[in-house]
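input
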Amino acid sequence: MISVEEALEKILSNCSVLEPEDELILDALGRVMAEDVRSTIDIPPLDNSAMDGYAVQAQGTEGARPSSPIILRVIGEVAAGYIAKEEVGPGTAIRIMTGAPIPKGADAVVQFEDTDEEKRKTAKKPIKEIGIMRQAVKGQNIRLAGEDISSGSLVLQAGAVIRPQEIGVLASLGREVVSVIRRPVVAILATGDELVDIKESLPPGKIYNSNTYSIAAQVLRYGGVPKILGIARDNIEALQDKIKQARDADMLITSAGVSVGEYDVVKDVLAQLGEVTFWTVRMKPGKPLAFGVLKLGKRKVPHLGLPGNPVSSMIAFEQFARPAILKMLGRKDYTKPVIVAKSESRIVNNDNRRIFARVIVTKRDDRYFAKLVGPQGSGILTSMSLANGLMIVPENKPAIEAGEEVQVQMLDWNQDL
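output
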């Protein structure tokens, strides 16, 4: 039986960053850049106004104040997206909107609030003159060409995770398509004679195949593409046939069949089709966990055999499958947020395994508190639904006492935290 850290290291050492593919920028949200992006243009392309106001020559406003405004002749108006035909000279001004290119001859923009425009508007006549009530300085309210991005500059680097702001930057460069790391295809196979698909009626003694759907949802959540293979019965031939359908996947995840029971055949088939790296981990829940590499045709496919109990399956996925998927996606950080909280429950650890206890974390007076959601049986799937965190009890700690500070791996954040 190996430690959680050893298991994760072995799994990640058998997973590689996948190859790049081109995606439309909106479809690239959350993906990892596979290319450096350099700009071929200046942004903004021209000097432009940062304010609505009047484009002027700063020197011509010297001494302007509210009690003694400098009067300039208005020779035109320019809006964003247009170029002024007129040129600003001594004693003249051009009315300008935010984002409009600075007219020739102008070196400053005086915002509307520092002019007497509002007073002149009451006359309901075209404004042919404007009073400047505050002296301007050269460069005032002007955004320079290339101020945001200069032509030839490195804008986004390979390895960056694409957020909405990166999509905005790509769009500002006129990029419709970007190269990103491909999403891993994860084949999902449930095993067990007791399982029934959710589309079928439930006979006596059977249970619905919930693991496939919780695992598929986890795959989706962390950026993978689930490929559902269905249910394999508890015999070697059926399992082999199903596993071979994963030959085009980047990873195979099975649930159940990795314990020590007579019908737990997954690790036996794994040994026949590839190699078993390990099959037990010092954790609770999730001890029966198999990992190896399958040889399917000309490809080698990493295989993670999760336990059959639904809670064990989901927690083991969080600790091992999630980091593997993130690595294949090109992510650098595989960790979940971990906080320090005060335990409101007592937890006994009597078999020297790392416990991941389902808890609800709340925040009171700037401190976190963690309370068990209820019974911790590995078959109680509703305990995962109630939890927003996993309290970590170290292997060498016999108990966590109420009131003791503990580490909690957060599954989710809510608005109260």
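quick obs: DSSP finds eight helices and 27 strands in the chain.
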